[in-house]
Amino acid sequence: MNSKEENVTRTNDEATESKLAAIQLGLLEDDQLNSLLETRNCKIVKEPLIIRGTVIRAKIIDQYLIREASVTQIVNLGCGFDTRALKHPEKTFFEVDFASVLSEKENLFGKPVNVNYCPCDLESDNLCKLLVHAGIDVNKPTLIMAECCFMYLEINTVRNLQRELAEMFKSCSIITFDAIKGKDAFGNRMTDNLPYKMPFFSHCSSKVDYVNIFDKFKCVDSFNMLEAESRLSDFKQTLDSKCMLDELEEWRIISGHYLFCRFLR
Predict the structure, then answer these.
(1) How far apart are CA 104 and CA 9, in angstroms?
(2) DSSP-H helix ranges across the chain
(3) C-alpha–C-alpha distance, residues 76 and 225, integer Å
(4) Who's near 246: CB < 8 A, 6+ residues apart?
(5) Taking Cα atoms as reference points, which of 134, 124, 132 lies closest to residue 102?
């Protein structure tokens, strides 16, 4: 495992820890991750800003899955320990990540009958060939999930990947969630603190920069984390009561650097 793979893999561990912290607060429900929490028998401590972002991210992606109810085939890029396949047994999932991550995931949770693992390094492997080998049906409407995935890749990798996916499937949509650099001082600090170069992240100074990379798809929805929070108005009171924020201005600045998008082909 090279250093970049180690760093990217570590983000899965951090995301899992954040979800466990949210589960402890009663902000997320996840039977599989809860069983992992029970084996640890300790309290997971995370900053409210991180927990809040984790919960909003999970809720928004779940809303998208409900909206795409008619789609029965899902490709989850950089899936990590995501457990949505277990919550949607009616759908077929193709879960894509490093072989080491998928192996650990299977050891922890097993492999449901509706899941096909697709070990892949998106920078060097041919994803489309691997998906075909895993048994994907290119004629079925397909949803591509890419949650905190593209931001770790090279710009041309993402550009070429979306073109290949557009050519591969008769009908597909993409849901993305990524950090972007933006144009403020905080974005510069984020760049300075990166453990390695992230050209895609650094390239995206705006929503327009991000969306333009997906030139084979039409962006039909895009909004940042703060705007996402407003879409969860029915849940916001619960979120505020269980995850209070002292630094509202810091939250406003940070949330502006995280972007949700939905693309259609």
Answers:
(1) 11
(2) 3-24, 31-40, 48-67, 84-87, 99-109, 127-134, 155-168, 185-192, 199-203, 207-212, 225-230, 233-242, 248-255
(3) 21
(4) 48
(5) 134
Check pLDDT > 80 for residue 217. yes
Q: Is the pLDDT of residue 122 over 80?
A: yes
Taking the C-alpha atoms of residue 39 and residue 123, their distance in angstroms, rounded to an integer, is 35
Contact (CB, 8 A) for 130 and 182: no
**Rounded to whole angstroms, how far apart are CA atoms 43 and 20?**
9
Residue 139 has pLDDT above 80, yes or no: yes
**CATH class for the region spanning 3-264:** alpha beta
Listed residue (250, 243, 174, 258) closest to 213, CA to CA? 174
Question: What is the domain partition of the chain in residue ranges?
Answer: 3-264
Q: Which two tokens stand for residue 52?
A: 């809040």
Residue 196 has pLDDT above 90, yes or no: no
Q: Which residue has the tokens 């041919």?
A: 126
Q: Region 70-81: what's the mean pLDDT?
A: 96
Pairing status of strand 218-224 against strand 258-264: antiparallel
Average pLDDT over residues 132-149: 96
Average pLDDT of the residues in 160-170: 96
Task: Indicate the burial class of 225 (C-beta count within 10 angstroms; 0-12, 13-18, 19 or more).
Answer: buried
- C-alpha dihedral over 33, 221, 167, 12, to 10 degrees? -20
Q: How many residues does the chain have?
A: 265
